[in-house]
Write a structure and sequence with these properties.
The protein has 273 residues and is α+β, with helices and mostly antiparallel strands. The chain is 25% helix and 32% strand.
Length: 273
């Protein structure tokens, strides 16, 4: 069966609106691993004293480091065509206390970095400039404050201690997600577009493709240390506080779960009337 090829933005929007229930169901059915942003960490001596704010060991007498990881940000259209919106983590953080700081989205005992008393998950409103970008406006960051212990995960302790971890990625599941399209023919989806488009920091990219998926609620399951996440906005805060924010053209993101085009192909193959 031939995969659909859209010659215009309008054709693709028509397909998305017609099949949005199936596409959203497919998005909800997978665990998304994406949207890494940044981290900063603080070395701690065995006695518990703070010894270095630049994540550089002062002595060899260190067996744990404190990490402040920005796991996710809102108001940015990511490589999955999703815009996470402020407040999406509120219910999950209130109800779910079994959140994990993992290594590369692996969920075994040997890949856990921190949990329970060694992990505090919360959100914090920050400006994009505080994250190292020249964009105006604010984002709601999902943050993990983790105590990374050598005895828990010696490899990742060494990576954090040596300041080699530059990206993190959220492992989450969608709860409430809506299609937004820039087309007056579809008033319901256009209303979603009009409601959120002005807060999308990469608005020009959203306008170019004419649609995005607005995520208003999601379950946070874990946040992982990764080599590179699917979101190209992945600075290291400690470095960007010392340098001019960069507005370089982003690199092609890593796609760790299905994006909208891949879902469209599967929908077309399996659900075409």
């Amino acid at each position: 069966m031939k995969i659909p090829e859209f010659s215009t933005v309008k054709e693709k929007i028509d397909f998305l609106v017609k099949n949005q229930d199936k596409i959203i169901a497919a998005k909800k059915a997978q665990m998304k691993c994406a949207d890494a942003v940044s981290f900063g960490c603080l070395a701690i001596s065995k006695a518990g004293d703070e010894v270095d704010k630049a994540n550089k060991p002062v002595t060899d007498d260190i067996d744990q480091v404190k990490v402040k990881a920005v796991i996710n940000t809102t108001n940015l259209m990511d490589s999955h065509d999703d815009v996470h919106l402020p407040g999406l983590w509120t219910k999950s953080l209130r109800e779910n206390k079994d959140i994990f700081h993992d290594q590369e989205h692996r969920h075994g005992f040997d890949s856990t970095i921190a949990d329970y008393e060694d992990l505090k998950a919360y959100t914090q409103v920050m400006t994009w400039k505080e994250l190292g970008f020249k964009w105006e406006g604010e984002t709601e960051a999902l943050i993990f404050d983790s105590t990374v212990k050598q005895e828990r995960n010696a490899f990742m302790f060494g990576q954090y201690k040596a300041a080699r971890v530059r990206n993190h990625s959220v492992g989450m599941q969608y709860v409430k997600i809506f299609l937004a399209v820039n087309d007056k023919e579809y008033p319901t989806e256009k209303k979603v577009w009009d409601k959120y488009i002005d807060q999308v920091v990469n608005k020009d990219e959203a306008e170019k493709q004419g649609y995005f998926f607005a995520v208003t609620e999601a379950k946070v399951i874990e946040g992982s240390a990764v080599k590179r996440g699917s979101n190209w906005a992945t600075p290291t805060l400690e470095n960007n506080m010392k340098e001019e924010p960069s507005d370089d053209t982003p690199k092609e993101p890593v796609k760790t779960t299905l994006n909208s085009d891949e879902i469209i192909k599967r929908i077309y193959e399996h659900f075409k009337n």
